[in-house]
Structures are given as C-alpha cells and as structure tokens.
Write a structure and sequence with these properties.
Elements lengths: L4 H11 L1 E9 L5 H13 L11 H4 L3 E7 L11 H8 L14 E9 L4 H6 L3 E9 L15 H13 L4 H11 L10 H19 L8 H4 L26 H23 L6 E6 L1 H7 L1 H16 L8 H5 L6 E6 L10 H18 L6 E6 L6 E8 L2 E9 L5 E4 L11 H6 L23 H9 L5
Parallel strand pairs: 1-4, 1-5, 5-6, 6-7
Antiparallel strand pairs: 2-3, 3-4, 8-9, 9-10
Bound molecules: guanosine-5'-diphosphate and magnesium ion.
Guanosine-5'-diphosphate binds next to helix 2.
Length: 455
C-alpha cells in the first residue's frame, strides 16, 4: 500500500503527544534556575552530550527541541531570554526572581523506539508545557476546609508561638478591637497591611509556613481588596455592615475567587509535577528554619493527596501521576554527600507520603543542581586526598572548601550542636551561547518526568 504524504502527516500528528508539567517550590527554592536549565538542556541536546542518563539521548533518538508559542494565552510567558541574558553577562548573574505564575512550551522531536510507533512514523514530537508557580500558593489549600472563625483561631494560635517582638506587637494591635461594632474598611485595610508586612518579615526570618500564601506572593492580585483581611477572634453572630462581617466576606471571597480558581485553572491540569526543596539552605539556617520548612513541605504535600475523601477530589479531578521532589543546589556539597542529601529529602517526604493516600502517583526524590556553580575535586589534607568544591563567591573571590556533611536522617540536637554546615553563595559559571549549562542530575530529573513519553 502506498501511503500518501497527506496520510503520513495525519499519522505523524496522531503520534504527537502533549504533557503539562508544574514546577513549584517555596520562593528561592530554585524554580527559575530549574526551568532555565531544563529548557537549555533540551534545546542544546541535539549538539551536546549533556544528558547522558536521559535514555532518549543515550539511544541517540533525540533529534532536537525548540521553543514554540504556548497554547495558554492567559498565563504570562516564562522569561527565558532574560534568564539566559543574566547568566551570560560578565560577571555571570543569577536570573532575577519572578513572583508569579509563568509558562513556556517546547516541541521535542525524537525517533520513536516502540515498534508500532516506529512503523507508523520515523519521527514524533512531544509538546512539553512547563509552568512555574509559587509553592506558597499551595499552603492555602487547608483554608478551603476552614471557615473564617476556625482559620482565625488556628492562625492566632500559631502566631502566639512565634518569639518575635513584631508578632507580639501585631497581636497586641488587634486584641482590643471591637470589629463587630465597628463600621468601614479603613481600619481593616490598615491592619491587613500590617499583617502582610508581618508575614513578609516572618518569611525573611526563615518561617515558610505562611497563610494566606498569596499575601506574600500576590502576583496579579497585588493590592486587590480580596487580599485585605487578617485573623481575628470572630463572634458567633456577625452584625450586618460591621467590619467583622467584611472580614468574613473577604475570607470567603479569597476561598472562592483565589484559592479555588488556582486549583481549577492550573493545578488540576498538570500531568506531572516537580517540587523543588532548598534543603541545604534550611540546614544552613538552623533548626527553626529547618523545622518550619519540614512543616511547609508537609502542608504542600496535602495538595498531592487525592484519595477519595480529599477536598481536591471533591472539587476537581487532579491527574498528576508522577511527582518528583528535588533537593536543589546540590553543587553546594561534595559529590560524596549527594546520596545523603537524597536520603534526607526522603526522610522529609516519606512520613507524610505513607500517612496520607497518594493514589496512583509515582514519587521520586533526587538531588539536583539545575545550574552548577562549582567544580568538584580533591584537596590534600594531612597527606590524604579530601573531597572539596571550588567556585567563585558573589564578591568575586575564588574559594575551595569542604562545606560539611549532610545528615542522612532528620538532624537531631546533636547535629545542630556539633556539625556546622557551610553554605556560600556562588556566582554561576560563565557559559557561551548554544552551550549546555553545567548541571548535576538534570538528566535523571528529565528522565523521571518525561522519559516514558519519549519511547
Ligand atoms: N549554586 C547554585 N545555586 C542555585 C541553583 N539554583 C538556584 N540557585 C540559587 O538560588 C537562588 C534562587 O533561585 P531561583 O531559581 O530564582 O528561585 P525561585 O524563587 O524558586 O525561582 C538563585 O538566585 C541562586 O542564587 C543551583 O543549581 N546551584
Ligand atoms: Mg522564580
């Protein structure tokens, strides 16, 4: 049988597949760096041997990748050009932080491996949508199951446990208010502003467990009244027209117009997701930051638990079937510590993984460096070769150091007392146009996320 060109085109199109990936993590976890590297690695894969552990490249079936216009016209574009420009400036700089959701689309051309697909066509295309969104937004999920009074009680109790004078001061500022008798929104706006400032301050102190998450990363909602409320001891009966009634109303608006649309418009559309966790920075900041990060992760993970009874299942039909946790910036430790880093991440994730039900979701934990800024090697110490890393610090100084050991289990009091961990801020290495960015284990991450779609 002779296959006409037209039928061939049709068959080809039939082979094309599409996958949508969500990239998340708390701010500074490394989302922008990860997406920049992911796109760079795939685009340069045709001319570089940069992804040896990605099977499709290993088998020389990867023909190349290019950016194509995204399908979703309402989401801002991920600014890849700006990221690449920063990285290739002299001296090289890390991309500017972004604070909203953004998206980029790639077309990956490859030779199918499976027999049926091979018979049908010599090449196929995988369309890959990559969406960057703040992990902070996932911290809001539990708010969907609480009314204003319950949320307020929880939140106030949480704040009371934080030993910072600014927190005490804010709590003091609301204690004598009579919002059920008051009218107008002037006072509410003022206190909400102070509350937002307080949350930002907590974040700068390493407290990641922030509610509502949008208050610290508002995206397009900056200054919208729906982000203007705060926890307040509610009374059983709301007086009509009172400031308290307004708070209660804004809280419900926040649930319905902010949290739910995010899960509907974005979250439920992801086929796969990657959660980036900056385990090493938290280790460096000490026990309170580490414990708070652990708490934030456990709340973030609730968004991935969609057993029959979960609120997600009731509201939407999530379809994520693979979930990757990545401990980022692995180039900050010597390679002999990478397995400990993976184990530590597993210890952070596993208890919750076992406790709640994650139906049909495959999970993996990996240490990665999206854009490696250091070189691993050895230094001689007491006549023995010791592992070390070297790189250029932010101030231009070149150093070689042994940053310390990563604990393979959750750190205990002994660790915090005896084992320091040295985390320096390195400049990215300079990288020429068309070159693949240096990385650690990006190939493993890509294999896990899309390898099965490139068969
Ligand atoms: N050494 C190193 N630093 C990284 C890496 N990824 C991110 N960083 C650092 O972490 C900062 C925050 O990363 P970014 O991607 O902007 O985080 P985002 O807020 O999650 O998008 C960057 O400015 C870098 O200083 C990495 O792979 N290696
Ligand atoms: Mg970013």
């Amino acid at each position: 049988m002779k296959i006409t060109r037209q039928t061939k085109n049709l068959i080809n199109r039939g082979l094309d597949t599409h996958i949508r990936i969500g990239v998340t993590g708390l701010s500074r976890a490394g989302k922008t760096a990860f997406i920049t590297s992911l796109v760079n690695q795939l685009i340069s894969s045709a001319t570089n041997d940069n992804l040896p552990l990605l099977r499709v490249q290993q088998q020389q079936r990867l023909l190349g990748a290019r950016r194509v216009p995204q399908k979703n016209l309402l989401t801002p574009r991920f600014n890849l050009d700006a990221s690449i420009k920063s990285l290739s400036s002299t001296p090289p700089q890390w991309p500017q932080p972004t604070r909203d959701v953004s998206e980029i689309r790639l077309a990956i051309k490859y030779k199918p491996n499976s027999r049926t697909r091979k018979l049908l066509s010599r090449t196929a295309t995988l369309y890959l949508d990559i969406v960057d969104y703040p992990g902070e937004w996932l911290l809001d999920l539990p708010m969907l199951e609480m009314d204003f009074a319950t949320w307020s009680a929880n939140q106030l109790q949480h704040l009371e446990q934080i030993p910072l004078p600014e927190v005490k001061k804010w709590l003091q500022s609301v204690v004598d208010l009579k919002l059920n008798q008051d009218k107008g929104d002037g006072l509410i706006n003022q206190i909400s502003n102070d509350y937002t400032q307080l949350l930002l301050l907590l974040k700068s102190h390493g407290y990641h467990h922030i509610q509502p998450g949008r208050f610290v990363l508002p995206g397009e909602l900056a200054h919208a009244p729906v982000l203007s409320f705060f926890p307040y001891v509610a009374e059983a009966k709301l007086i009509k027209g009172s400031a308290l009634e307004l708070l209660d109303k804004r809280y419900r608006e926040y649930q319905n117009q902010v949290i739910k649309p995010f899960y509907k418009r974005y979250f439920s559309e992801f086929d796969r997701q990657i959660v980036l966790v900056d385990v090493l920075s938290s280790l460096n900041q000490g026990p309170h930051a580490f414990n708070d990060m652990q708490w934030a992760i456990s709340d973030i993970m609730k968004s991935f638990s969609y057993g029959n009874n979960s609120i997600l299942r009731r509201l939407f039909a999530p379809r994520t079937d693979k979930l990757l946790f990545a401990a980022t910036k692995a180039d900050h430790v010597t390679p002999d510590q990478h397995s400990n880093l993976a184990l530590l991440l597993r210890h952070l994730v596993q208890p919750i993984w076992q406790y709640v039900s994650f139906e049909n979701v495959e999970m993996e934990c990996l240490p990665v460096a999206s854009i490696s800024a250091t070189e691993a090697g050895y230094v001689e110490s007491k006549g023995k070769a010791q592992p070390a890393i070297s790189g250029t610090l932010d101030n231009g100084e070149k150093i070689t150091l042994y940053p310390g050991e990563v604990p393979a289990t959750l750190p205990n009091a002994h660790f915090w007392k005896n084992s320091g961990f040295e985390f320096s801020s390195f400049q990215p290495k300079s990288c020429g146009e068309g070159e693949a960015l240096p990385h650690i284990a990006m190939d493993k991450a890509i294999e896990f996320l899309i390898g099965d779609k490139l068969r």
